[in-house]
Amino acid sequence: MRISVLMALARLIVDFPIKQRTALLIDLANHADLSGETSQLLSAFQAVGIDLRAYRCTLSRDPLERSRHAASLSMAYKRLRQTFQYHEQDFM
Prior knowledge:
mainly alpha; 5 helices; 0% strand
């Protein structure tokens, strides 16, 4: 993926509501390969002051907490999709 698109996404995500932003960052950190220092994803988020490695964690075993996380994550991805589609020409 082009670094410019990753940078644009990172700038969008940094302005999300805190619970949505946290859920999305946890999901990205848990599913991305952050082992390399040259990771473009890591670089994009570091440019906006976010260390993705700090968000790598296991999810709570509490069903209520997991449900809240899943709801926040769903809303965050929906917001990201809508916002990205709205600004798509700006990013390409």
